[in-house]
Amino acid sequence: MARLALLRGINLARHRRVAMAELRQAVVALGWTGVATYLQSGNLVFQAPGSDPEVAAQLSGLLRERFGLDVDVVIRDGARLATLLAGQPYPEGDPARTVIACCDRAVPEPAVARLAALRIGDERFALAESGCDLYAIFPDGQARSRLAAGLIDALAPATGTARNLRTMTALSDLLSAKHAG
Fold first, then answer.
1. Are 1 and 47 in contact (CB under 8 A)?
2. Which of 16, 51, 77 is the last residue of a domain?
3. For the chain, which has fewer Cβ within 10 Å, the N-terminal or C-terminal residue?
4. In 3D, which of 5, 132, 20 has the Cα closest to residue 78?
């Protein structure tokens, strides 16, 4: 089964750089197959044995050893990603201003209060049915949004990363293509 690894905080400006070609080579050397990347922001599609937590730990260890980076890794399979996209509660929103945050565990209740305190204007957020993922919409953009800036940190002790809806849809399509192939 094809899976998706979402890596948090790599290739932002000049910080925490990881060349996608080098990342692909490194995971192929682990014996992973069907490897592909999307964009330069830490989106890796692959097939590998092991549970999602085991694979996340293996990839995190590789990133630490090979690139010297401590990176949060969240794994999703195609079915779970398709469910996330289907459950997206903001169909009227601009896909570039709507995000899905994926976490390594259930979002703790105190995080919801922290997130609510960060909202401004028409910003909204909602937990996904899984309890481990969150949707947020930023009608006025993310550049000046306190919610956008604090989204992932507010989810502690869960760790995770977020992608906009456009990217998540493209990743779902890539996963579907890899699963079919």
1. yes
2. 77
3. C
4. 5
